[in-house]
Fold this protein.
Amino acid sequence: FAPWDDPTQKPFIEFRNVTKRFGDFVAVEHLNLKIYEREFFALLGPSGCGKTTLMRMLAGFEDPTEGDVFLDGKPLKGVPPYRRPANMMFQSYALFPHMTVEQNIAFGLKQDGMPKPEIEKRVEEVLTLVKLTQFAKRKPHQLSGGQRQRVALARSVAKRPKVLLLDEPLGALDKKLREETQFELIDLQMELGMTFLIVTHDQEEAMTVADRIAVMNKGEIIQIAPPALIYEQPATRYVAEFIGDVNIFAGSLVSCDGQNTRIAVSDPELTIDAGAPTEAVTGSEVAFAVRPEKVRISLDPPADPSINALQGEVWDIGYLGDQSSYHVRLSNGRNVRATIVNSRRMVERPITWEDHVWLSWDHDAGVVLTR
Ligand code: ATP
């Protein structure tokens, strides 16, 4: 399933050169985006970057100042929200407090004039989907936060919209429930065969649920790619730093021969060989980004201590159960992070505070960033 790699595939949702201004303020600028049918797509970015505005333009609650949004090849300009085959589930999934779960779900269907037997069938179906059949007669205040969230979800898919828009849908749930519900969302999306568009500022959430992620900043999309590519091949320094932990070394490009890229870093003094070629020209400013879990930490020097290797002192160790996060301080005062999987018991930890250690990594462990 990778329709975005197939140029013959037509996008299901398309933002074409869309700009949205609120007065003088530009919330979204000249934005282009294609989303494919049955895709689970995430808009990810910090607060205020324009994610919700983008989603509201698709739902019809906002009009683009310039450009247009297309659904199934048709422009949405002038189509009112209730005529759009997109349903939005809001951050605060307000349920009607005086109605039972099944009445809450049936409400929208009744308003659409659906015959009663069909409504009953549809309500039963979606309750089964979200595993809430036994709670059908309860009112919202008799449910947990997670169950209320699932009622809201059932309500938004009951009309079988072509697109479900989820605006921070799991924001109110605690970490464990949130993680469980993320997998339920994936299952639900696959069972329904619908296109899901989720807005989140939580990178782990986006990585877990989405087929592809658009990383946004200040009204622009910086990179669109599947989660593993966003993490392993970030297009810019911003993306590398926004997603997960990363060590970044700024330096200048010494040489690039199509197979290897050599970078000289002056502070700390370090020579980096980064396998892949880059488009940057010799002498230009570049950065090298390497994730903490790709950095090895050892008491003995690596085979070639002149390349991709640094020395420092263990400054902090964060124990996370399954892994430990090491902060190693270099002679210039800077910290480099290395993560170790705790396959041994912590009491047997071979490397500890104040140890003088070597940090090293493989040639293909990181990426060269030119922006
Ligand atoms: P959050 O995660 O905090 O919801 P977001 O990325 O979804 O953030 P948007 O809600 O899309 O951000 O807002 C983008 C920018 O547009 C913000 O700076 C916001 O203040 C501004 N904005 C949004 N709606 C309006 C409006 N109706 N009038 C004026 N400015 C607005």
Helices lie at 51-59, 101-111, 116-129, 145-158, 175-192, 203-209, 227-232, 237-242. The longest helix spans residues 175-192. The two ends are 30 Å apart (CA to CA).
